[in-house]
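Hello again, I could really use a second opinion on something today. I've been staring at a protein lately and its backbone has me curious. Please have a think about how the structure follows from the sequence. I owe you a coffee for this, so here goes:
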Amino acid sequence: MENVALKYIGYVRKSSEDNKERQAASLPEQVYVLKGMESKDELNVIDILEESRTAHIPGRPFFNKLLQRIEGGEANAVLVWHENRLARNAYDAGQIVYLMDEGKLVEIRTPSRVYHNTPSDKFMLQIELASSKKDSDDKSVVVIRGLEGKARKGWRPGVAPQGYLNDKTTESGFRRILTDHDRFPFIKKIFEMFHGGTPVVEIHRIAKDEWHFRTRQKKRSGGGFLSISMIYSILTNPFYCGRFEYPVGGGKWYGGSYEKAVSEEVFNEIQIKLGRKSQYRLQNHQFAYTGSLIHCHSCGSSIVAEEKWQCMCSNCKEKFSITKNNKVGCRYCNTLIKDMESPKMLHYIYYRCGRKKNPKCTEATIRLDRLEKQIDEKLAGIEIAPPFMGWAIRQILEDNKKEKDFREDAIENIKRSHDQARIRLDNLLQLKISPANSDGSLLSDEDYKLQKSTLEAELKAIEKQLGDVDNRMIQANDQTEKAFTFASRAQERFNNTDDLKVKRDIFMGLGLNLTLHDGKVLFDAPKYIIEIEKMKKEAPIIAKGVEPKKEPVEMALLEEKYSLIPAVLRSRELNPACEIMLFVILFFRKVSDYVLSGVTPDFGV
């Protein structure tokens, strides 16, 4: 290779803004190493450029200056602590190699290796730079995965907003968001005051003059009073109602595990008052009775849910809808929402036909509260008093004990049938292999295969019957008890929970093929619900509850009355050989309905 006078520019870099490279040597350490190489190898180093920027993305100012000086002929060699100091992305790596291709960059020297402008050295340099990029990509994947895992647990990565503190004492990866007890009460008060009608300007004055509220002091900022823009930022940040998007703009919203400063309902009302709708609410609100659970009676489309917001104008007392075209004021008197004194916000959820099968479907809608009122009335119609439930379950267990001998006899008969089938199969084999049948005159090959397959199928059927008969009654009793528990507790659980999944499960327990018609839900109720409703009409004592405050009820007297109810004993009268209560039969009918529809029965108990 032609001798060329080498003029080196040293380049040192520390990713102080990037936590992924904490193990890289500090800038002074890198400079010390380069100075040692300059002295030891008697190099002509004209300058050393120092930079504190990440190399994962292009755009480093001093790195660009390095390339420009080499491009201009000021230098033709680079001195670095490690190859990855130069580039960790494909664009910068390509520029380095291209300068070598052009002959403007003759040499790259590190403490462990020298790269000349030769094919083999450039190939090895590209491998090193590609490895640096691969290492960078791997670290990014690990970091992103860890941050997403943290978000799923309810802890938003990044700096906590006013009123909260970042946990700096816990091990990395397990750090939470703590409540700033000095500022959190004031943040809550800001939401309360604005929701109550206090203007932002007045909140700003109170926070400054009366509370003397100052923001959290940081290294380079903080410690000052809240500005009006900061108050608006607080009022519009969904983090305070327990929701956050990560990464920002990614469309993924998570529920926070930290203490909320305001309820979600109040936060949404504040957004409406400010003339906007919170984007997280539109993307993440879930509804209990959607997802093909109900269908339109007219066209068969799935029922969907939609939210409606209305405002009661504090000036003219008229109620107006808040839509995309009208978020700011009353359409009757033109008073702005933000100028109203304590405007009343109304929030409704409606269920309507999705109109996928018929865009012109005119089936009536139903409001959520009216839908749940119908569900409550349906549950009230099947509610069973706990004393009757306990008595009925005990009767089933008693009947099961009485059936024990019958079941044992049935099992013995099945075993005998199994033994006989096994003997016939053995005899068939003996006949086939006997010397007298050597010519197939007694049993041909075709007849043997046919009889053999028939007997084997019979054996499999008997074995299946033997395996099922012992567990059938136990399973029936267990599932019947669940059915009774559902009938006795469903209404109470439905009215005392805000869990949408629980409400949905209870609703599904009322029947399949639910349809919406003329603002009413048509229940295709399982037969066990129909029978319970029928028994309650025939025997009102079944529906009679036992309240703790009333005088104790004589259980023996109640049980005696239960035993005389025709609806309960009807199955025995119609079929004396059947010792199983009507409720077991009813439950089997319900199970059959669910099995045929492909759904496993679940009473949500």
